[in-house]
Amino acid sequence: MHSTYNIQHLASTHRMSSREYIEILDSDSDPESEPQHIKRQKMVHPNPSNTARAPYAASEAAASLASRNTSLKGRKRFIADLDDLKTACDQGFVAHGLVLQSVRAGDDEGTFETMIKTSSGEHVLNLNIMLSDTADYPKSHNCFSYSSDSNVAENIQSVIERIMSLPSRPIAETMDRVLANLTKAMSTGSIESEPEDESAPEDEDEGDTEEDYIDDDFYTSSHSQKQIQMSRLHRHFLEMVARDYHPGLIRFGGDEFCISVSLSVIQLAETVPPRALNAWDRRLLSKTQHLVLLISGFRGMYPPSESDDTKLTFHVGLSGVYKPSKEQAKEACRNFGLIGHDAEDMLRLAKEKAAAEAALMYDDVDEFEPEVQEKEEKEEEEVPDRFDKFSLSGSLDSLMNHQFVKLVNMRRKYGLGWAGAELLYSEVERNQKSEEDVLACTLERIHIEDEAEREMIRNGTTILPDDPIHKMGNNDQINWPLTAFCYLIRRLTLCTRYCIVCHNKLETDYVALKPYVCNSKLCSYQYYSLNHGPSLEYEIIHNPETVDLLVSITHSAAAENVLDEPLPIGMGLRVPLPDATKVRAAPPNTIVVGVPIMNQAAAPTNSPPPQAQNRPVIGPDGLCDFDELDPQQMRASVMELLDSLPPIMDMKKHLEQNIKPGKSKPKLHETPVAENVVPAAWKLLRWCVGSCTAYLEEISSEEEKIVNVDNSWKQYRFSVGAPDAEAKFKAAVEESKAKDSNARKYPSLYAFHGSPLRNWHSIIRNGLWFKTISHGRAYGHGVYLAKDANVSMSTYASGARAPCWRNSKICPTNCAALVELVNLPSEFVSFTPHFVVDKTHWLVVRYLLVKSSSKADKDKQGKEASSGPRAMQRTPFVRLDPAHPLTLGHAPIQIPEPTHQLEMILRTRRAEAEAEAARSKPDIEDKTVFEYDESLDQSIKGWSAKGKGRADDPMTIDGDGFGGDEMDIDDDVPYQYAASNHRPLASSGSSRMAPDHQRQLEFTPQIVKRRPADDWVHDPEYVRAAISRLMPPPEMSTPGGTMAVQKELKALLKEQRSCNNFKELGWYMPEEFMGDNLFQWIVELHSFDETLPIAQDLKAKKLNSLIFEIRFPPDYPLSPPFFRIITPRFLPFAHGGGGHVTAGGSICMDLLTASGWLPSYNIASVLLQIKLAISNPDPKPARLAHNWNTPYGVLEALEGYRRAATTHNWIIPAGLEKLVR
């Protein structure tokens, strides 16, 4: 048996009897292949066998060591405990008849090595322990383990594997438990009867309670008194809606619940580049769905108490609707599933193996292909309210659960931004010092990080979400769901700048298209061995030829001795000693036609391991550590491991085998005729795919292929570089248009870049850089590009000198890229005979061309060539600059618009999202929150009881359906209102009130509420002058609409009167201008951030506010109200203005159209959203026009609204013209 830690035998060594082992699903990769960590499920059903067992008890020595450093936590506690364990071992640590010796710290943080012997001195085991995160030690960390010994006995190996499932305890107790299990395994041959750990000692301040275990009745409340403050939840939901997020409440039964916050992926694509979303996970844009954050752990209370803040748990995934079903959410919050094999699984594997062996009898393997994919697809059911993980779910879950709450607390305590708090957190964890000590040393760096993020936002290439806790006071209540979702969107947007495992910022000059890991060996181990990276199984099933290409290119680079960074080090690979003579000598510096063949890969971030001084240690099984090999041996080992793998199509067939419900999915290492493949080969395959930070997808549609390129060349969509590379390129194109008239007509050029096959392993991962100068350059320093494809595809893209990967289906021999570049050749380093460009942000790689030597591919291409002319072209071609023609030989090349396919996908997703939004309505649980009326009559009764007011003082707005409701002013200061008689509205359909109702909305406060001296003050004369020429209010109404508007008015006035600071509220409804028509309101927006240009303009013109008119449709709230600015006039967008204000003064937001409106929205949240939109400086800040004092007309507002809706394909509400005419 292979000596390294291997979890794949866990199911066979553990019997699911009185205890069960649960697999945590933190990635969308095959959950059975290599799970991240195992937790125990404490069973509530009595088991007679358990009562007969003696509970496990730690030895006296272990218990003493574990109790020494209880005042410490995290890394400090681990270091102190490890030092104590070293000292104890030096003095003789004996427990359960075994001796623990030679404990020493490993090379990476959180690792240590030890040796275990019998009391007579016989060797038992060399053991390596690795903690998942010392920050979680000793309460919620996980231990990974393996042995460097060879030929470990099966019973000893089962003990090593069981370490992962042990509860999180101090390392002294963990090692004591390991010794106990070893003693049992050596004496009985098994540890199946190991008792439950029911008496584990507790630390002073962090002992495990029964809440640390996951009971069957997981959602049964442990609190006797539960309370959800519906008023707070109502307010928080509205704040989320105001930012275009979709909140949801999901009750699990009893007091337990979770909150979901979601955003449709197509809306996410407006801030995150679609090319990046597609590269991160093709499923994100494959259909209409929502990015969902599930938040649980409230323990029946909302908002959570300060002590419960850190107990919140977060789960990130995708759902076809705005929130998953209760069953899906409950399962996601449980986050585990059983694993196991049975005899039926073994029989299935045996049949597969026999079929594969039979296939070897055929000369052409392609003739023996069972059609299994169609069966698999038929079994897939479309469940809209599912909660599915995607490639980044595991990393985002870890980030949110381990760091988010701590970052919020740091921000509030020290007044930092997100970037500064992340740096502070990272330094605290790295140095294990107090926050204050680290802050004193790194304050300048922290401020630089925060300022760099603000500058990035100002540049406009990266759009980050709103920051809900910016300038929030220490005593202000946090909207936890909103803050968490905003932080999630921020980190998703910036995910390529951070390590996907440890979440620290990457210290590299190059930003990749896909998220990756830092240089830590521990991160590399978790990324590849524990499936924190992209799903290899998904890529094999859906993109087998891309996987084949990546493996073939890696094999070529290794065979020709140029495979450099990145190398698969730090992954714990145990490999056979390779034959280094199989690797060819590196090619000499060759000059062809005066231009060097250059490897234009990025400069390596790390040098390869130095050449070993001694021969690697070889175990009896013939395996050695990959990291101990010299670079040439590493390349030879990569070749041999890849050659041992079966063909990718065989893996695909195996993974697509039909399985019965409840059975484990097929695993890669169970692929037929792969029993002789060492585990390191499967990890290397995962590395070949996971280390590729570019986007590659074979083009199968003929109309999307480049015209006049020989069919022997396969064509791939190819995208490499930072997620914002497209935005930077477009900005450079716009700059070129301003400089050059020809660039205005032909904004970009196209050219080819060729390089030998061996170089593409590096180019695909790092892009076209030229920092490493491997050869001379005849025409200057830069990326070399040819206008004639023959130069790149034959001269430069020279064929491989070594044999191709023997199991490759496509057998690539040559590679070339087609690159789009800014059309400013006069500013190139050289433009004849070749383009030489030194500004890499002026280049965007669009296509990869791969020549195949496969016989099957040649036959297929021959059939395609003889099939006749190209079908009708629906994809538009790029307009090429005739001054720089692009040719292949003498034939002109036509290029389909490279972004057309993605734009069509986005257009389809938008249409689907609009249709889904029109159908989607809040369910009963969410309606309860949205429609919650904050106990209007309860505080009135409170006043009467306290003698502060009388029950007949408050005003009733209307008797039609609201006769018993009273206006709730939730203050310590009472108000008294003028009484009036109330009658129902006239039944003629008019919204106009009878004359004696004209004064019913006039209030005379008895006591004025005290407000800050610098608070905003309403100016009645300013408003009166603005509304003097308003058109008559709308005439049509319905009883339902009247009731809804009355309720909305009541809520708005209540919030206005109860606020302590108008400046913080940001809007004001002047009560003296409420006329005799409920369906026409006047509202002011004021107190904008003083740093905004619009605020400075208002101050310069001595304007007190923006004055809005709101007109309600008769069927409100089914249709949205119409908002327009009366005065002042804004600078139109066409003249450099912004703020989402149309040229006619209406508001350009889908929220106010039939496409985006929901009946659950209220006017207060809409006003907040409008103010945020006006305050948004992207793409341009709002400014006042030179004729700012010319009021907008209602008809020009209507026209502006219609133009905006037409431009964005928004649906205009029915009857809008009648509303404003």
UniProtKB/TrEMBL annotation:
- Keywords, A to Z? Glycosyltransferase, NAD, Nucleotidyltransferase, Transferase
Q: Which InterPro entries match?
A: ARTD_PARP (IPR051838), Poly(ADP-ribose)pol_cat_dom (IPR012317), UBC (IPR000608), UBQ-conjugating_enzyme/RWD (IPR016135)
Q: Tell me, what's a Pfam family for it?
A: UQ_con
One molecular function GO term is:
nucleotidyltransferase activity
Annotated region Disordered: the residues are 27-54, 187-215
- Recorded superkingdom: Eukaryota
User: By its UniProt entry, which Gene3D superfamilies does this protein fall under?
Assistant: 3.90.228.10, Ubiquitin Conjugating Enzyme
Xref: PROSITE patterns: UBC_2 (PS50127)
Question: Which positions fall inside the UBC core domain?
Answer: 1040-1221
Q: Where is the composition biased (Acidic residues)?
A: 193-215
What is the protein name stated in its UniProt record?
A: UBC core domain-containing protein
- Can you name the source organism? Lentinula raphanica
Q: What are the leading ranks of the lineage?
A: Eukaryota, Fungi, Dikarya, Basidiomycota, Agaricomycotina
